[in-house]
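User: Can you fold this complex?
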Amino acid sequence: MSPQRRAGLGTNQEAVRRHNLGTVLRHVHRAGHISRAELTSLMGLNRSTIAGLVAELESLGVSERAHPVEGARQGAGRPSAGVRIAAEGPYVVAVDLGVDRAVVARVGLGGQVLQRAQAPVHDGGEAWQVGASVASLVRQVVADAPPAAPLVGIGISVPGLVRRTDGLIRLAPNLGWQDVSFGGIVLAALGVDIPVQLGNDADLGALAEHRRGVGVGVDDLIYISGNVGVGAGIIAGGVKLDGAGGYFGEVGHLPFGLAGLTCHCGNRGCWETEVGAHAIAEAIHCPADKVAQLDEVLDGYGEPPAQLRATGTALGHGLASIVNVFNPRMVVLGGYFRSLYSLVRAEVNAGLTERTLPAPLESVTLALPGLGSDSALLGAAEIALEPLFVDPVAALGTALVDVRAGLAG
Amino acid sequence: MSPQRRAGLGTNQEAVRRHNLGTVLRHVHRAGHISRAELTSLMGLNRSTIAGLVAELESLGVSERAHPVEGARQGAGRPSAGVRIAAEGPYVVAVDLGVDRAVVARVGLGGQVLQRAQAPVHDGGEAWQVGASVASLVRQVVADAPPAAPLVGIGISVPGLVRRTDGLIRLAPNLGWQDVSFGGIVLAALGVDIPVQLGNDADLGALAEHRRGVGVGVDDLIYISGNVGVGAGIIAGGVKLDGAGGYFGEVGHLPFGLAGLTCHCGNRGCWETEVGAHAIAEAIHCPADKVAQLDEVLDGYGEPPAQLRATGTALGHGLASIVNVFNPRMVVLGGYFRSLYSLVRAEVNAGLTERTLPAPLESVTLALPGLGSDSALLGAAEIALEPLFVDPVAALGTALVDVRAGLAG
DNA sequence: GGAATTTGTTGTTCGAGAGAACAGGAACGG
DNA sequence: CCGTTCCTGTTCTCTCGAACAACAAATTCC
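Assistant: Here's the predicted assembly.
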């Protein structure tokens, strides 16, 4: 699931080709439209080698020749031909499973959302019901796709703990799920067998912001997600961290709460009891049935009341500990923290500065997501696309070619 | 400093050879004595390719042909010739800078300590004084080395924050240092210019235990070091985490302390105020001048007094949070925690079990260091050896060949 | 003792990237 | 307006490293 290669293996020449082909595609995916000259300098390979790789990608139907990139290089010399994602190229389906709604999108190489659909998800719905409605959304989203374009896979963002090895949803408290094989359920509802990847919403938010959001070029970042529960996704050295089981970054139960309130996990003083959605909702007397739309409620405020300012300070203090431990260059505040931070920015910053050690403080920045509320969705797309960058030929081999017929059921 | 390759680069054929040669050497280093047949299956390369790589390593003088490995394979077939570290092969010097003493060792490929020396370090000593005495220890340790053997580099373990980019010691509270370029000081005292690597003691402990200690084969582990201050080194996915500046894993200032004692960092309730050496010393009425030997004091106890049992519970509770966040497969308790854990194992385990979430708890193990008190020292050796595994030819090129003459000053 | 099995060795093949030579296309300078 | 300069795409050849095949060597098993 992670892009890390197995350590200790040797490299044969087939692996070289695979890696280089995948890396070219990764660059095209990142930039959308890039010149061959840029590819040569980015990858440090010879012009002729790049030409061969680009030609192979074109023959695979994933990229196509394009006009030179606008405003690329100023000066003399022959302009370099562009490479861009093919119009009828491969795509994936991304699913963002929220507490109250599911968003499904068709996302092409390059990270563009080509089509989108959503539907409400009933609280406490059974997994197979949710799976059926997700499958129906998938069919909608895929209906207008070019017939020749292959479907590479499905990526699903889940608000809960996802086991790394097999994508099993171990625990999703806000969905009321435990040990649910949601990937299999969706595939069964669709009646196909294609690669499915699942991930935690905070992890995927971090991945998306790192690749396409405010965190582009930032190799050490943390994405804190407020989505009823509080979680973090961590990118360290440019790599998404998973932990032994896939549960890396569960910061919601760190005991930052001085009041010592009891948490649903059984312990006391968890950070979630201070800055979790339910805690905030209670503090500002927000009705319980609107907790899922807490960000909209917060956006409605002009001036923050004192309770929110105190929450902002608590958020800043908690972030200080997180920064001390993870030493990130950037912390992205996602979910309802996005709205909260806009309201009480001063308090959060003060709380952070007050408690962070000097060394980690000097290089860290707080930021809002560059992808708005689509972070997790686009992160789901990224993990579904990942096989293409590891081995384009193999990934296209397992892709679903005749999508309409395949999903007709 | 970290073994991660720069992302986005292409692989040319020169890089392939470099990588494969380094990987063979890495395996020989790890195993000490390994058969060529094992190398072929581990690396997935052809027999003849491995033969060529091994021949090159032999011609470089880093490995030599050996008898077949004892008790390797049972069954028919020609026994596979062994590969082992050359007797007069390259070595490094490892330095473990402690609070009260410096240990210096000559360490060969394969991780064997070939020679060792130590000297007390005066509390509050100036960096140049410490540097001079370290340099003198280095000369001792190198004196009996085979004259043909090259010195690849120096690795230094420091109890403090080390900046990743240049190895500057940003802050070492227990040495009273701030912004000290200790690597340069030692090199100047030696009068040579060879590669020097510095690292935090907990980080290096984690690295060593992962490669040569209890954590062999465990790709997600945490090493908690108790050395006056409390810190953690984290290996995730088989890679040591550094963070943006190199300060990843500073867990000593997480606010786990319910009593809310004031810490030297200015905040309240830091974990160090509960399980730090000074806190423990105070709790058991240990004289202040023996804090540096806290482990020996603890080893003197037969039955733990109540105060230590409470400390054990606090340690367990803190570890629970750490396990929740980092989701490791193993937690190694180093420094004086080694002695403490042996005394109050039950309390630590109970505290951990009580507060860890079910999912991360089910896969985690507490362990004692497999390398005793040499973890940080051997970790320092590992980072000094690392260049050899990235590019053996280049690393041997920058190595010091005529060591006696070079260090004669 | 012969068959089976596994490995080391040697020479050849194959494939991917590097490099050189040439052509194409634009900006620049006069 | 035209030649120069600069950079890039294209094509062909070269080089190098890994794979492959065939054979020899060394051990176990029957």
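Chain A touches chain B through 62 residues (CB under 8 Å). Residues 192 and 298 of chain A are 41 Å apart (CA to CA).
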